[in-house]
Amino acid sequence: xxLGSNPSGPTTLLQRFLGDSGDxxxxxxxxxxxxxxxxxxxxxxxVTEDERRLITRSREGDREAFAELVRLHQRMIHSLAYRMSxxxxxxxxxxxETFIRAYHGxxxxxxxxxxxxxxxxxALNVCLRWRRxxxxxxxxxxxxxxxxxxxxSSNYRVDRLQExxxxxxxxxxxxxxxxxxxxxxxxxxxxxxxxxxxxxSWRLFAARRQLAxxxxxxxNSP
Length: 222
Prior knowledge:
Blueprint: H1 13-18, H2 37-42, H3 49-59, H4 63-85, H5 88-105, H6 115-147, H7 155-167, H8 170-181, H9 186-193, H10 197-216
Helix pairs in contact: 3-4, 4-5, 4-6, 5-6, 8-9, 8-10, 9-10
C-alpha cells in the first residue's frame, strides 16, 4: 500500500496545490522504513528521460506532470522530513512544503545537477529552517514566561502562554508576533503595522504587563 491518506479522506495542501491531477494520493500517513535514496542516487544520470519530460511539462504549468514527479520522489523526501522532525504530522507538512517550493523553483533548475539531489537539498533546507523556528519558538516561550514571572516551561504553561496571547488586543498581539516570534526589528514591525517604532515599543511593554497578569491569574478567573 502506498503511504498516504485515504483518497476519500481530508484533502492535503499539496493535493489542493496540484488541483485536478488525476487520482494523485500523497505519500504521507505512515512511518517510512526506507527512503529509497540509495537507489535514486546510484543512478549516474543527472536527469532520467522521464524526469526530463516531466520537468519540461511542469515548467509549462502542467501540474499533472508535476504530480508524477512527486510520485517518483515522495518516499525519499518524506523519509528525510520524518527523520529530521521525528513527527509524522510535521513530516507531512515539510514534505508538502518541499514539493511546492520545488515547483516554483523549477525554472532555476539546471540539468548539471542530479534532479534528486536538487530536490533533496530543498527538503533539507526546509527541514533546517523548520528546526531553527522550533528552537526559536521554544526560547521565546521560555523568555515570555520568565517575563510573566514564571520559570515553568512545561507544555501546560506554554499552552497557557498561547492562550494568553490570544486574549491580547490585536495590535498588541501583532507587535509580539512580529518581533518575538518572527524575529523582525522594531523598525520592520512599525512599517508593517503603519505606526512609529516608539508605538511598537509601547505595545510590547503593554503586552508583557497583560501577559504577566493573565498568566499569574487563577485559571477560572475572568
